Amino acid sequence: MSCPYANLNSPFPPIKKGPYPPLYEFITEKWKPHGGHLDEKVAIIDGTTGLQRTFRDQYETIGALAATLHGEMGVGRDSTVAIYSPNHVDFLSVTLAVSLCGGKLTPVNPAYTPGELEVILERSKTSVLFAHVSTLNNALVAAKHCSHVRHIVVIPDDPSEPLPEGTVALQALCDPGRKIHKTADFVEDTNSYTCILPYSSGTTGLPKGVCLTHGNLVANLLQFQQVEGPALLPDHKLISPLPFFHIYAFTVSMLYCAWTGNQVITNSGRFDFETFCKLVDEHKPQRAHLVPPILLGLSKSSVVGKYDVSSIDTIISAAAPLSSETETAVEQRLNCLVKQAWGMSELSPIGTCNADSDSRTGSIGPLVSSTEAKVVDEEGNSLGPNEPGELMIRGPQVMAGYLDDDEKTAECLHNNWLKTGDLACYDEDGFFYITDRLKELIKVRGFPVAPAELEALLLTHEAIRDAAVVPAPDEESIELPRAYVVLKEDETSSNVSEESIYSWVKEQVAPYKRLDGGIVFVDEIPKSASGKILRRILRDQLQAELR
After folding, report:
1. Of 85, 92, 344, 505, which residue is least crowded by CB atoms under 10 Å?
2. Within a 13 Å sphere around the CA of 101, how many CA atoms are in the beta-carbon half?
3. Cα distance between residue 428 and residue 91, in whole Å
4. Strand, coil or helix: 139
5. Cα gap 191→212, rounded to integer Å
6. What's residue 479's pLDDT?
7. 116-120 contact pairs (CB < 8 A, 24+)
């Protein structure tokens, strides 16, 4: 029998209902090119290279690049373009140029190996691949094995650098005599037309293409504005060292500030805590978008005392749970507000967020505008306040579905309700708290790692008969992948060690997927009668060992 609890609603004012304008038209509506108030304002600064772009620079690049992509490379309806790059100052220009053509953009982790990149390129049917010069070698290797890739565009830091044969530099595609500044006419229904195609493991399994429409993204930006708008002034700056390929920084940092006209300070190099503090000291940003491992450093590192970081008055933490202790410690040390938000790729990504004026320690906040939620038990019954269950979300930011995967879409979308795979509860005032995860993803410094992906890789090792991967807790990284391995009983396993398996995996995956949580040899992997790995048993065993 169902419990008589009503769905929860957002305390923020509702956003206007769609249909919404295409993403490019929405983002640039306040740019007023050629004499507007944002014309010569610096939009983005790369603290690693010193490169920067004004809003006029971006306007010119986007229009010219879109004309070439559409006219010469055939990017349009049903086309997919991938970007394999760190946080370059032209990341936004590529994004909006592709959307102008009516194509889909797939952001790819620049730390991916050629094998990992190849999987994404093939599944997304990418025809044009933008690769930063630092990822170019891997891109060339992966593209050789991809049937759809026809063009490779290089994003250089130095335009004078020579390029490999068969590639073209981004700047060479930006003919100032050719421009497009209106989204292709066939993008009529922006609520159903896919614009961005990030890859996510969802609640379980291997990465799947998340179809986010123009309407999804515009709605989520409007929702975030109801939370942030009252406190974000036109001259405020944001520092976000988070990677733009990740949906958190992609929407909340990059797209949002492009729309509001606020400057973004980022860095394209590997994250370095001292560099981050130095950039805060130099540029004096008022707001920061961070993840728990960086906040842990802010609470403990002696580096903080070497720089003036007092300009920061508000920090948003997301992508992984933040402990109340760390949240409070940073607030006291920096004399600023730390507030949490929560979301996932399938939500474009924001589902909940604390407001500056009403933020609760340990909470991921209330629902954003025009969003409904319910917390349900295993039978699907709605639960009341302070009762943990699975969090389900309904709103205009919920994805259209997974690319070419109706079965997985049906598993997590029911009557427009998204099953999040997160266990949560809410208090009497509608503030949510994440208590655990139903989904099997491992969160390493905010990056999702699918156990099934690592297990499938381990099973290709000649000496391994069976394997399971679970999260091991870690103070700095939050979680780390830990493998339980069953070796074959033959000569292939005679010289196999934890170190050799670790090194073998290391060569084939991005750094955050490495088995840094350890490798344990076992006699068997616990499984159900149907053969499903019972990772819960291994997690419980690990917790018992740690205790």
Report:
1. 505
2. 31
3. 42
4. helix
5. 9
6. 94
7. 116/509, 116/510, 117/84, 117/142, 118/142, 118/145, 118/146, 119/207, 120/82, 120/199, 120/207
Biggest CA pair distance of the chain: 74
Task: Encode pLDDT of 441-469 as tens digits.
Answer: 899 998 989 898 999 899 999 999 999 99
Residue for token digits 């302070």? 386
Q: Could you read off the pLDDT of 307-338 as tens digits, one per residue?
A: 999 999 999 999 988 889 999 999 999 999 99
Pairwise CA distance, residues 145 & 122, whole Å: 9
pLDDT (0 to 100) of residue 123: 96
Q: How many C-alpha atoms does 6 have within 13 Å on its Cβ side? A: 5
Kindly state the helix (H) or strand (E) to which residue 403 belongs, with its residue range: none
Per the listing, tokens 């403990």 go with 300
Q: Are 269 and 86 in contact (CB under 8 A)?
A: yes
Please name every residue paired with 464 in a beta bridge, in sequence order, or none if there are none: 487
User: What is the spatial distance between Cα 495 and Cα 373, in angstroms, rounded to a whole number?
Assistant: 53
Displacement of CA 208 from its chain's centroid (Å): 13
What are the residues whose beta carbons fall under 8 Å from the beta carbon of 161, sequence distance 6 or more?
133
Q: Counting Cβ atoms within 10 Å, is residue 300 exposed (0-12), middle (13-18) or buried (19+)?
A: middle
Task: Give φ, ψ of 333 to 5 degrees.
Answer: -75, -40
CA angle, 343 then 129 then 95, to 5°: 45
Which DSSP state fits 17? P
Strands 80-84 and 104-108: parallel
Tokens of 279: 């950039």
pLDDT value of residue 1: 38
Could you give the 3-state DSSP secondary structure of residue 328?
helix
Retrieve residue 264's tokens.
């973004």
Burial of 54 (0-12, 13-18, 19+ CB in 10 A): middle
The separation between the first and the last C-alpha atoms of the chain, rounded to the nearest angstrom, is 39
Q: What is the pTM of this model?
A: 0.91
**Ordered domains of the chain (ranges, CATH):** 1-20+265-439 (3.40.50.12780), 444-546 (3.30.300.30)
Please name which of 468, 470, 448, 475 lies closest in space to residue 539, comparing C-alpha atoms.
470
pLDDT for residue 2: 46
Q: Of 505, 445, 499, 436, which is closest to residue 469 (Cα–Cα)?
A: 505
Are residues 224 and 256 in contact, defined by beta-carbon separation less than 8 angstroms?
yes
Amino acid at 329: A
In Å, how far are 68, 169, 175 from 178, measured between CA atoms?
8, 17, 6
Contacts with 270 (C-beta within 8 Å, 6 or more apart), sequence order: none
Contact residues for 325 (Cβ-Cβ < 8 A; gap 6+): none
User: In the Cβ-directed half-sphere of 301, how many Cα atoms lie within 13 Å?
Assistant: 16
